[in-house]
Fold this sequence. Notes:
The structure holds two protein chains of two kinds. Helix content of chain A is 76%, strand content 0%. In chain A, helix 1 (2-29) packs antiparallel against helix 14 (301-329), helix 5 (87-122) runs antiparallel to helix 6 (127-140) and helix 5 (87-122) crosses helix 10 (193-230). Chain A has helices at 2-29, 34-39, 45-54, 61-73, 87-122, 127-140, 144-158, 170-173, 183-189, 193-230, 233-240, 245-282, 288-297, 301-329. By secondary structure, chain B is mainly alpha-helical. Chain B is built from ten helices and no strands. Chain B has helices spanning 10-20, 22-44, 77-113, 115-129, 133-143, 149-176, 179-186, 191-227, 239-248, 257-284. In chain B, helix 2 packs across helix 3. Chain B starts with 9 loop residues before the first helix and ends in a 6-residue tail after the last helix.
Amino acid sequence: MTAYFLRRLLGLIPVLFGISILVFAFVRAIPGDPARVMLGERATEEAVLKIRADMGLDRPVLEQYFKYIGGIARGDLGTSIFSQIPVTEDMKRRFPATFELSIAAMLFALLVGIPLGILAAVRRNTMVDNVAMAVALIGVSMPVFWLGMIMKYLFSIQTKIFPPSARISDVLSFGFEPITNMYVLDGLLRFNATVVWDGLLHLVMPAIALGTIPMAIIARMTRSSMVEVLSQDYIRTARAKGLVQRTVIWKHALRNAMLPVITVVGLSFGGLLSGAVLTETIFAWSGIGSWIYEGIFQRDYPVVQSGVLLVSLVFVVVNLIVDLSYALFDPRIQYR
Amino acid sequence: MTASNKIETPFNIIRRRFRKSAPGKMGLVLTILFIALALLAPVLRPYDASLDGNLEQKFQAPSLQHLMGTDDLGRDIAVRVWHGAQISLRVGVISVSIALLVGSFVGFLAGFFGGWFDTIIGWLTDLMLAFPGTLLAIGIVAISPKPSLENTLLAISIVQIPIYIRLARGSVIGLRDLEYVQAANALGANRFRVLFKHLVPNALTPLIVQATLSVATATLETAALGFLGLGAQPPTPEWGTMIADAFRGAYWDSAPWTTIFPGLAILVSVLGYNLLGDGLRDVLDPRAVN
C-alpha cells in the first residue's frame, strides 16, 4: 500500500509539471496586454513599457517561467496585477469559500443522490423507480446557471426565504473575525449561532445549484450498481437466512454497491470546481471560480495562473484519494 | 420462441431492442422533433437577429401574440429561442463530430501500435483530463482573439477529444489480441487493414453512445460559455447568451420569461440527447440486460 501510494505520488510529478507549463502558456496566450489593460487606452507608450518592465513582462518567456516555478516552490505566487494584493492573500480568502460551497454541494448530492438511487433499485421497474430516474435525468440535463437563477427568482425575489447573494449578511460581516474563512465553521468555532444560521441560509441555494448535477449522476450510478449487486448469489443467501430487507440492503448490498459510486464522486469534484465558476457568478459568491473568471477579463496573469493551477491540483489530488479509498471499501483490492 | 427460421440480422436485433427501450424512444422523438424545428426555422420564418426589435413592445409578458413574451428590445423570445435551436444543434453536432473523428483516430492508433506514441498520447490525455472540462473550455476561449461561436465550437471539441482517445484506445486494446485479429495477422494482412477493417468496426459501439451523450454536454457547455460572455455574442440568439443578456441587463427578475424559456429549451434538448444516449446504450451494449 505504501509503495503504491508513493508510486502514485511520483506519477503526479510529470502531470503537475505539464499542468504548470500549460497554464503558463495559456495565460500568456490570452490576447491583450495586462499593462495596457491596467493603465487604460489613453496611457502613453512609455508608461506601458515601464509597467511591463516592473512586472517583468519584458523578460524572455523562459526566464519568466522559471521565475514563476521558483516562486511556487517558495510559496510565492506573485501579486495580482489588478488589485496589487499578493495572490496568496486572495487565495487564502477565496479558496475556503469555494471549499465550503463544494462540500455543501457534495453533501447535498450524496444525501439526496444515494437514497434516491437505492430507492429506485429496490423498487426497480415500478413507478417509484421511474420517477426517481426521471428526476436524475432532468438533473443532469439542467444548465446550472439557469437553475440558480430560477431558484433565486422563486426563493429570494418572490418569497424572500433565502438571501439572494453573497456569503454572509453585511451587518454580520462587520465585527466578525473569521478563522478559517468558512463562515459556517467559523461561526461554530466562535460559538456564534447567528453567524452559523446566516451562513447556512446563504449556502442553501448555491449548494443546491452546484450539487444538482453530481446528485443526479450519483443517483443513476447508485441505482445501476445496486441493481447489479442485488442480483448476486450472496444477497439471495442473505435473504434465505431470513434477514430483513433493511439489513440486506444497508449492510450487505450497499457496501459493495458503493465502489463505482466513489469513482463518480471523485470525478464529479472536477465538475463542481468548474460549475463553481457559474454558480459563484450567479450568487456573487467570492470564491475561486469568480476569481478566475474576473482574472481572465482583467488579464490578471498571476491570478488566472494560480487559480487554474489550484483547481487542477485539487482535482488531481481528489482523484488520487478516490483511487486509494477503493481499498477501504473493497477488501479484495490490494495495492502493491 | 416462434418456429421462424429467419436469421436475425444485427440491425433487426438492434431495432427490436430499441423498440423496448422507453427512454430511447422518448429521446428519439424529442431529438427528431428538435432537429426538425432547427432545420425548419430558416425556411418557415427567416430571421435576422440584428434587424429584430420593436421598442414599443418591450418586456411584454407571454401572450398569444408573443408566446414567450418579448425582451428589452421588444424582440419576440419565441422566435429567438426557435432560431437558437439551430445554433445549438450546429455547435453540438459539429463539435462532437470533430472530437469523435480526431479523438478516436488518435486513440485507435495509440491503442493499436502502443510504444512511445501511446506513452506520449497517454500523458497528453492525462494532462487534459486533469483540468475540469468547462474550465479548460473557458481557458481555450480566453486565448482566442475574440469570443465567438466558432471559438466556442472549437473549445468544446478540444475538451472532448481526450475522452474519445481513451475510449477508442481502450476498445482497440481489448480487441487487439482476439483470435480473429491474430488470424488476420497470420494471413499477412497489412497492419492498417487489420486496424481499420477488423478492429475499428467492432470498437465503434461505445464511441457512438458517447457521441450522443457528448452532444448533450456540448449543448450545456455552449450555453455556459455564452452565459459567461465568452461564447456567442449578442444579438446572436444563442440560448446562454440570451440568458446572459437578461442577467447582465438586470431585467431577468422583472421579466422572468426572458430567462425561463431559453433555459427550458436547453433543458428539453439536452434531456432528449441524454434519453437517446441511454436508449442506445441499452441497445448496443450486449452486457446491458434489462
